[in-house]
């Protein structure tokens, strides 16, 4: 006898109901630790399951697009020989990034499958604000003091991925500190999280196991 599909009623939900019920899986970590690759691998896996999962969505890192735009405003071209291009950050920038990242996340949650993958979030924006402007700058947190419930945070370990400079990353020397800051923040906020270690295949397999556990715990939508 075939087990009933716990998400048989998902497609009939209104967008605002999906936004509330979607399991939001957030990938965070220091620079060049494999977040985007892992996010895309997870999306591909869940889409391949078909049915309601075929519409699994992901939210990219808005802060990266914002950074590229700010660097362009400074007149620094990608054809220049600079190894690292730095933007001139203000507190307002991080508030703008946090708000837009959350808007994109909410929009995707209202339109996709029962699971949503986010390549960073507004909490990560708060940590990057601390990195660039110090502990006293709290614009991102002030703009979004409360975030929607997260099903799971996946923290990519910097020790398993070789650092690759793409022209806007700070540098390898900051990765260990940033990893620890993410650990500290997730503990402070009491979020459900897991360190992600290993090669690409090992990371993907472990994350699928963790996410399936989270999905199995959620009430059916039928």
UniProtKB/TrEMBL annotation:
Domain of life of the organism in this record?
Answer: Bacteria
UniProt keyword terms in alphabetical order: Kinase, Transferase
Q: Which Pfam families match?
A: AAA_28
Q: Which GO terms describe its molecular function?
A: kinase activity
Q: What is this protein called?
A: Nicotinamide riboside kinase
State the taxonomy lineage.
Bacteria, Bacillati, Actinomycetota, Actinomycetes, Micrococcales
Ranges for domain NadR/Ttd14 AAA: 24-203
| Matching InterPro entries | NAD_biosynth-regulator, NadR/Ttd14_AAA_dom, P-loop_NTPase
